[in-house]
Amino acid sequence: MDRLKWQGPSILAWFGLGGRAGAIPGRRWDRPAQLRRWVSRIPPEVAPLALTVLAALHLIGVGLFPGGTNPVFGWQTESAFSYLTYFARPDAFGLPGPGERENFLVYKIFAQDGTTLEGIFPDSRVRPRLRYERWASAGNLAATDVPELHAAIMSFVVDKLPEPPLRVELFSAHWTWDRNAFKNPWHKFNPGQSLQKRMLGTFNGLTRTWTPTPRGARE
Amino acid sequence: MTDQRSGSRVAIWLRFWFFPVSLNQLALLRVGVGLILLYTLFVYSFDLDAHFSASGWSNLAALGELDPWSWHFSVLDWFPNPFWLWCVHLLAILTAMAFLIGILPLWSAALSLVILISYGHSNPAVLVGLDSLLLTALFYLALLPSGRALGLMAPPAAPTPLGGSLPEEDRVPWPGLPLRLIQIHLCLIYFFSGLANMDPDWLAGVDFWHPRLLETGLPLARDTLWLQARWSGLLAYGAILFCLFLPVFVWLDRFRYWVLGLAVAAHLAMGVIWGKLPQNLLMIVLLLSFVRPHHVDLLVERVGELLGLDEG
What we know:
The complex is a heterodimer of chains A (219) and B (312).
Chain A: H1 11-14, H2 33-41, H3 46-64, H4 80-85, H5 98-101, E1 103-110, E2 116-121, H6 129-142, H7 147-160, E3 167-175, E4 195-204, E5 209-212
Antiparallel strand pairs in A: 1-2, 1-3, 3-4, 4-5
Chain B: H1 2-17, H2 23-46, H3 48-52, H4 60-66, H5 82-101, H6 105-122, H7 129-141, H8 176-196, H9 200-203, H10 206-209, H11 211-214, H12 229-249, H13 253-273, H14 277-287, H15 293-307
């Protein structure tokens, strides 16, 4: 029988548990005779074959659930291999995510001196870029319907201000446009008409309370 | 006869998964991934309190519910105190440095993996694509003996001071498996990225002109290239085709290095255009797994000769 002759070292050598790879043949172990006989009856291909079957199953899992979610059926997986090999992030390729483009938060601060200041969460001046990406990812999530997050973000923003504001309004902002309407050159496209804002709530600086906008009144 | 056939099939199957690897190749993968891991942790330092402490911007309990996994394992949850949070972060940086310079790389990779998972589950809102890629890379590198060359713990008996390739009879076949997994996993990432980009926004070139991208000071603001729709259309469709076909052509010897060269150029361009250099550099590092082991050895030897490291 033309079998593959497995001449590789013990798998322990792979993990460096025996000095240089290939230097710790299993027969040096002082195993009981019966166990030794039992082990010797196992074909040497069994361990590598079992490993490759596991590897193939793992890759099938990666193929069925890229980024933790099946793109066709929307199934999510929680199996151990997906936990170890990826988070549920589909934008693994290096292009801008939704937080860097469409979704973010806008806040309007009414200061004590009567001035009004408008800001964006995330702040586009944050550097280095990786920091901005993380804040943008946070802004993307916070722009969804998670009232607990809105309150926490408002408290974070107010704490950063040099003086307590009279009032702060928080909006979720979403870019939306008629894709048939814009034409090249794109820099002439009026982006101001494409921003859709929804009020999420108001912070009262006098009472230091956060009042979320009722869900039905947001649209 | 049937036995012979099944035996040869098993042999072909095993030869596909287990093959001799270059220690230099593994070491270069380790150094590349280690550098990007270290940079990622360094950048985390700026916003550690804001993202992960109880006094940060996020309501950690609410974020926990948004975590798609039901098991929210995170070492950071054990240390709500900012002082201990910083201690864990410092440990993470030291572990990444140990991995980079090759101190117990299997264990330092595994520990880095645990810490990276902890960051991810402590605040899933701040995860970016780079984290997924780093996680994948660390997972496979934790199975590879990447510290036997170009590392502080590289065995002194290595054939060359740089730890060049071992003689054929001493070559280790086990590491071929994780390396093959990296290759196939990368192909899957490219393929699904190609599928994901088949959306109207990408095909309309939105990523080239979006006002929010322009306001962050990316080179896109100089939009002379994007004045012509056909150029951006060509790029958008070309990128999709490239992502879909790379997983095929990279396995063909005749096209392998052409495809890899194109991929490196594309990733560098994407890194500059969208300011995502760490993530694109990590893709380039992982693409190194497709280079033939003896070519890597040759390259490292040449570089060693140029730097005078091969003397003695």
